[in-house]
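Q: Here's a chain of 270 amino acids. Please give me its 3D structure as C-alpha cells.
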Amino acid sequence: MMGEYGDAAGEAHDEQLVAWRRELHRYPGPGFGEFYAADMVARYLRRIGFTVRIGSEAMDSSAILHFDAQRVDEAYRAAVAAGIDQVAARRMRDGGTAVVADLCGRPGPLVGLRFDMDALPIIEAESAKHPPAKWRFRSEVPGLMHACGHDGHMAIGLGVASVLAARASRLNGGIRLIFQPAEEGTPGGAASIRDRGLVDDVDYMICSHLGLGVSTGEIVCRAYFLATSKYRAEFRGRGAHVTNSPQDGRNALLAACSAALAIHAIAPHS
C-alpha cells in the first residue's frame, strides 16, 4: 500500500483495514445470520459508488441446504440491538444476507471477487495472551468467533473496493464483489448466489483465503477451489407388530445407523 498511496496515505489505508477487521471480529454472525457484517459492507459500498444488491436480490433462498432458524433469529436480534439499519435487517432476514456489489467501467470483461462472511460456533479465549482479548476486539457474541479469517476476508474486500472505486473511470470492464454468507460446512451460501444467476455473466472469478499454512506476507496462487459436496439420504421403513408379524417390518432407523457406521469405514483420504 505504501508505494501506491505514499507513506501518509498508505498508513491511513492500512489503519482503516485493521479497524474494519477488528470491528467485524467483534460482531461475528453464523451462516445466514451475518446481519451486522452484511449491513456494514453494503452501506460502505453504496457510499463509494457501487450498485448494491442484498436480500432476495442477491440470493435464492430455495438453494439453501441447511438453515438454523433459531441461531439466525438470535443473530438478527443481536445485530438490531447493536444498531444496524432495521429496514435492511428485515430485508436480509426475509431474503438472505448475501451482498453483491457492481462497479462498471468501460466495455470489457466482468471480474468477480468473492469474500466469505460467516463465523464459527467457537467460544473465543479470554486470556490476555490472545491478541483480540489483549487489544479489546474479542467477539461480543457468546459462542461465536471469527476463527477462520473471514473477518479479514471482508476487510480485504472493503479495501479492494476502496482502491477500485477511486479508479472507476479507468476500469476496462466491470467488477462484481460477492460477499458470501454461510461458507462453513457448505450449507448453501454459494449455491444461493449461483442460483440467483449472479455468476452467470462473470468472466473471471477470484477467490482468496487467509492462512492455510503459508507464512505471513506470502501469496500463493492456485487454479482450483477447495469444496465439499453433501448428499441427503432418506430411509423408508414399514411398521409391523413386534410379536404377531415382526418378519413383515423394515427397520428404517436400524438401516440408517448401519449406513452411518459403514460410511465411516471408507478411508478418509483427501
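Q: Can you summarize the key feature?
A: The two ends are 37 Å apart (CA to CA).
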